[in-house]
Amino acid sequence: KVVLQLAAPGDKIDDPSVAWASTNKITTLGTLTVASVVPDSEATERALMFLPALLPAGIESADPMIQFRNRTYPVSYERRHQSQPVRATAMIE
User: Fold this and answer.
1) Taking the CB of the first residue and of the last residue of the chain, which one, N or C, has fewer CB atoms within 10 A?
2) 18 and 42: one domain?
């Protein structure tokens, strides 16, 4: 189940260290179902790297930490996989 907690007026949307009230509205977006796995899932998983700033056009984040996360995730990926350096394709300056 995928759920979303909605910000209330006055909620800090630019500081990820501040928790929102548990009374904020929570809505269910849908359900994710894994129907199958790829034949070589370990290799596929190793090729994936999450970059938080890769957002669809028109969606922006007020969280200033995104720019730093986008710069550090590739470093973490390299360390975990002992691979050749990777370059993040979307960085917020």
Assistant:
1) C
2) no
Assess contact for 50 and 42: CB atoms under 8 A: no
pLDDT in tens, 28-81: 999 999 898 888 877 777 777 788 888 889 988 888 888 888 888 888 888 877
Same domain, 23 and 50: no
pTM assigned to the model: 0.57
Task: Take residue 58 and report the two structure tokens written for it.
Answer: 């028109």
**Are 16 and 63 within 8 A, CB to CB?**
yes
Rg over CA atoms, the chain: 17
User: Does residue 55 share a domain with residue 89?
Assistant: yes
Helix, strand, coil fractions of the chain, as percent rounded to 5: 25, 10, 65
- Regarding whether 43 and 25 lie in a shared domain, the answer is no
Range of the domain at 21: 1-33
Tokens of residue 64, six digits = 């200033």
